[in-house]
Amino acid sequence: MNIRAIMAAAIFTMAAIRSNAFLQEETTITISAAGDCTLGSDYRAGYHNSLLHEYERQGTEEYFLRNVRHIFEADDLTLANLEGPLTDAEAHEDKEFVFKGPPSLALALSAGGVDAVTIANNHTYDYLAKGYADTMESLDDAGVDYFGNGLTLMKEVKGVKIGLFGYRVWDASRYNKDRIAEAITALREDGARIIVAFYHWGEEKQYYPNAVQKEMGRFTIDCGANLVLGSHPHVLQGVEVYKGRNIIYSLGNFCYGGSRHPADPDTFIFQQVFTVRGQRLLNDNACTIIPASVSSVQDRNNFQPTPMDGGDADRILEKISNLRVSEGA
User: Is 202 helix (H, G, I), strand (E, B) or coil?
Assistant: First the structure.
């Protein structure tokens, strides 16, 4: 073998070693998810002890997520449902509850470590198109990304693309299935290794998912999503592991300005660690549930979600376990 052939063989061998090493490299990505964040209130319900009153008392946006910020800052991506507009608009829908908070409260999300929110919910348009546009502008100003209502979001974390989308899903229509399948296909074609769906669905104050939730959650996994998150019931619902992937039917309330005294203050933060080896997403399912309350005090909602420990944490974990949904049931 001549010297050129030897050198070529050596270069090929080194390239193969480097390529194999690259393929074996592992990257872990921790995604946290929290439920309904209504950073405002319904003006018709009065001001005293409302979220806006608490905001005035505390004098800082950092107050609201202060007790969970250490969790959200330690992960790689934090998601939540922003339930209600951030706007100074006055004209609103004619409905039972209309929520809004000032645009400055978008900073409560960024100060608390929230990276992106879904804006696909039944309060998004409480203050009509202006309120919706103001909300997106407020989020942009605060450095918080958003998705939902046909807007997808691609986040690159540690070199891995994560695709996010969300819809209001009230039925299992062909229309809903088509737009879900199209969103997942488009995100995959754009290079997403991990795809997360965040839906607004189900029935308020119901602890078990309805037939639509189960059908659409499983359909979303069948289409290729890696995680399905849910909100709207305002209480916790169970978790289902379907084909090795998680459907979190309802994360419940979180920083929730919709009630001064919620009947059920239990909530949780869901975390999943995804592992990417080379170009392949592993099938491991490493999850953590962090029990929490929507308030740091017991006598009222002070709009400061707080992790629970001891007996309260055990009770919430048992509650979630009892609500677990069996695959195919």
Answer: coil
